[in-house]
Amino acid sequence: MNKKKFLLFLGIIVGVILLYQYPIQRLLAEKKFNEYIRAQGVDENNIASKEAFKNWKDGGYLIRVTYSDDPNYLYYYKYKPSTHKRNESIKFNRMRLEVTDIKNSMVLDPPYDGKCKYPPLDE
Fold first, then answer.
1. Which end of the chain has fewer surrounding CB within 10 Å, N or C?
2. What are phi and psi of 116, to 5 degrees?
3. For residue 66, how many C-alpha atoms fall within 13 Å in the half-sphere facing its CB?
């Protein structure tokens, strides 16, 4: 009987972790993405393609987007549920943007000065 309770408890813990890692975290990432593009002034109808992936390397989610009015660039929106840097307090629900030039296969660095139509927002 004790072994059954332990296995049930372990199953519940694993289930809660999987529920958080996939559907809940993806929902939070999509919500933060929509807030971010609204702040950028992007029209949602302007999105040519959008793919969301679980980002196991950094944690959180990666949303890869191309825009129909800026087809030369790939926009990587990186969502993290929490971040903590040295000498900084912990921050929750963060979104960061990296823009990649498709032709040159390189990440754009600031200053953006008209290189891409939707530069990252200052955090």
1. N
2. -125, 160
3. 9
pLDDT digits (tens, 9 = 90+) for 49-85: 999 998 888 888 999 999 999 899 999 999 998 877 7
Whole-angstrom distance, CA of residue 20 vs CA of residue 9: 17
Sequence-ordered list of residues with C-beta below 8 angstroms from that of 59, at least 6 positions apart, any chain: 80, 81
Residue 21 tokens read as 């890692």
123 CB contacts (<8 Å, ≥6 apart)? 94, 96
As a whole number of angstroms, the distance between CA 52 and CA 22 comes to 11
